[in-house]
Specification:
By secondary structure, this protein is an all-alpha fold. It has a single domain, classed as Na+/H+ antiporter like fold. About 80% of the residues lie in helices and about 0% in strands. Helix 5 packs antiparallel against helix 6. It is a multi-pass membrane protein. This is Arsenic resistance protein. Pfam families: SBF. It is found in: Cell membrane. GO terms for molecular function: antimonite transmembrane transporter activity; antiporter activity; arsenite transmembrane transporter activity.
């Protein structure tokens, strides 16, 4: 079982690229697949349940007491990187919907496959893993604040409170509660432990499923958003180049040990494109531009994934010398 899990994690970038290509091709070839949009939220809930199963929920309290790491992680993701994003969006055309899409994805730190790549990049993945519920909760609470501050009065016409509340209940609270119950049962019964072993295989397939459903439902309309996606791509590339360095500098400034500093750097670099999609679909008139622009960030990020695994450890060595 552990071998299969390791195999899935080792080949997840290839799996995601294959999923993107096959979902896009099927989306073009099969008409009417946009009805699959209704399946995105349930698929996301399964993905986040699988992610939270990996979280040592009993150790969250211990992780929260690591004040230096917590300060570095939260200040990087919710102060430093939003300031960077504020500067980057000024380079975009004066299009509220386009800027909203870019802000949606760049203001929300990743909480799923970032853990695997933090581990591969010699970062403290376990410490970062324990903080994923905190990261997800804070981004849902702070995203409306950032959007209002950056877009001003325009945001009230584009974003409503309902989807955020819905996302919190069904994408955070319920999956987290189910994961906690599953872990509790697994610690006390053999059947629960065996079930948990099988469920631990879910993260990569569940993420691939979300990618597939999104692509197959959006692709029939993607031509209408092509120009917007191309406009956003250079911004995502700039972000991908700045983020690891910003995270590393904050970690060094707070004197984190190298593995913890690398974890902050990885967290700054990866964004929560899949989890934020339900909010994009809920924006009136947002389809296909918002999901297309958000998925463009996913593609850029997948290109940078193997580079980060090699670059961030070397960056840490340079910073410490």
């Amino acid at each position: 079982m552990e071998h299969l899990r390791s195999l899935l994690e080792a080949h997840q970038v290839r799996i995601y690229f294959f999923t993107l290509i096959s979902g896009a091709l099927l989306g073009f070839a099969i008409p009417g697949t946009d009805e699959l949009e209704a399946a995105i939220n349930p698929a996301l809930a399964v993905m986040l349940f699988a992610t939270f199963l990996q979280v040592p929920l009993a150790q969250i309290g211990t992780a929260l007491r690591n004040v230096r790491f917590l300060t570095a992680l939260l200040s990087t993701n919710f102060i430093v990187m939003p300031a960077v994003v504020l500067g980057l969006v000024q380079l975009l055309p004066d299009d509220s919907m386009l800027r909203l899409a870019v802000l949606f994805v760049l203001l929300t730190p990743c909480i799923d496959y970032v853990i695997t790549f933090t581990h591969l990049g010699q970062g403290n993945a376990r410490l970062l893993l324990a903080m994923t519920p905190v990261l997800l909760l804070l981004q849902m609470l702070l995203l409306p604040v950032y959007l209002s501050a950056i877009l001003g009065s325009e945001v009230s016409n584009l974003v409503q409170a309902g989807p955020f509340l819905h996302a919190f209940v069904w994408l955070i609270f319920v999956p987290l509660l189910l994961a906690a119950i599953t872990q509790f049962v697994a610690r006390r019964t053999r059947a629960g432990a065996q079930l948990l072993e099988w469920l631990n295989l879910l993260p990569v397939p569940a993420t691939a499923l979300v990618l597939f459903i999104v692509l197959i439902s959006v692709m029939p309309q993607i031509g209408n958003a092509q120009q917007a996606a191309l406009s956003a791509a250079p911004i995502y590339i700039l972000y991908a180049m700045i983020a690891p360095l910003a995270g590393q500098l904050v970690g060094k400034g707070l004197r984190l040990e190298p593995a913890a500093a690398r974890a902050v750097s990885f967290s700054a670099s990866y964004r929560n494109s899949l989890v934020i999609l339900p909010l994009a679909f809920a924006v009136p008139g947002g389809v296909p531009l918002l999901p297309a622009v958000i998925l463009t960030q996913t593609i850029v990020e997948l290109v940078f994934l193997p580079l980060y695994v090699r670059w961030i450890p070397k960056l840490a060595q340079v910073q410490s010398s």
